[in-house]
Design goal:
The structure is a homodimer. By secondary structure, chain A is an alpha+beta fold. Chain A has 2 domains: 2-79 and 197-203, 3-Layer(aba) Sandwich (Glutaredoxin); 85-190, Glutathione S-transferase Yfyf (Class Pi), Chain A, domain 2, CATH 1.20.1050. Chain A is built from 7 helices and 4 strands; from the N terminus they run E-H-E-H-E-E-H-H-H-H-H. The first copy, chain A, has helices spanning 11-22, 42-47, 67-75, 85-115, 126-144, 157-166, 180-190; strands spanning 2-6, 27-31, 55-57, 63-65. In chain A, a hairpin with a 5-residue loop joins strand 3 (55-57) and strand 4 (63-65). In chain A, helix 1 runs parallel beside helix 3, helix 4 runs parallel beside helix 6 (157-166) and helix 5 crosses helix 7. The radius of gyration of chain A is 17 Å and the shape is globular. The interface between A and B is medium-sized, with 33 and 33 residues.
Chain lengths: 207, 207
Amino acid sequence: MWTLYDYRDSGNGYKARLALHQLQIPYRLVEVDIMRGESRTEAFLAKNPNGRIPLLELDDGSCLPESNAILHFVARGSWLVPEEARAHAQVLSWLFFEQYSHEPYLATSRFILRHLPPDHPRRAELPARLEKAREALRVMEQQLARAPYLVGDRYSIADIALYAYTHRASEASLDLSPFPALCAWLARVEAEPRWLAMLDEQGRIES
Amino acid sequence: MWTLYDYRDSGNGYKARLALHQLQIPYRLVEVDIMRGESRTEAFLAKNPNGRIPLLELDDGSCLPESNAILHFVARGSWLVPEEARAHAQVLSWLFFEQYSHEPYLATSRFILRHLPPDHPRRAELPARLEKAREALRVMEQQLARAPYLVGDRYSIADIALYAYTHRASEASLDLSPFPALCAWLARVEAEPRWLAMLDEQGRIES
């Protein structure tokens, strides 16, 4: 059985948890408290030299880092990943957009507001990061104003990857009301079969 | 024929150019001068709402953004992408690592030093960005000390994605001598069949 090393408040980890749940793949969850440095221990760095969660450990002991690589791996060949080359490429494109243009701004702002003390010097980063987060949301809004999902008319791992932190935007002090198509898409994702809330302990399947 | 919208000094664009050249795929190159705002015009934003190069336009007029999604798309099914699921996942993992933990530090430092005036306020970002760049190089060094390429014993698009900016590290004021396995790997990449230098105008195939 696969083991997912994860921190429950991480949207990056939630991507894998949601896909595993929707695909009904059993897995073992090992909680890693990143706020206590548990992703920087010698033992963890031996599994992922980049010191980050989520990390997926396979049956042969090999480890796969990077949330979106894990997401693609667990969903490969399933209804969550289109086979057709151009649609598949668009899915990957949104996954890279998420890591480059969205996560460093929305998720990092959320992290600063949620996990660092109010007088922490990193608060100074917020105005610039939030402006970039709004730019990313505008790019998503454009796509979602003309199609129900990020890639065509099908729910895919592109939606999972972008949903993970977008639906927690209020925790990053972001107002989603200027993005009506995006808000409708959040509701659409939440109506998908076997959708699972981010912090829902019950969602995990063990066998 | 595909059209690549690109800026010649971009390592992100070079990933696609190198793969297209190694795979002997003809394409049309349209130069976009990002320093003159040509990636932010209304016409370009209609093709890529995120306003970035490289961008690949396909025969049906659809457009694919994100350098690593383009790289994966052009190389899909070729000798540059392993088929086996775990190796493929490791390749994607390095592609996400590149965009999240490497490019924003090494490439952005290079951009600040190479394209902004010496008194530009963004110079203040350099110490923090260069420290993160060295962290990324250390992660690569660990892998390359135990294997000839980033994924196992085969050259792949993972090597192309990481080579693109790593081999220009000196332009970001980074010294690669503390990373001997990485330096040997740079030479190994440059010995691959049909390798093409980053700014080599001759490398482009048109037909």
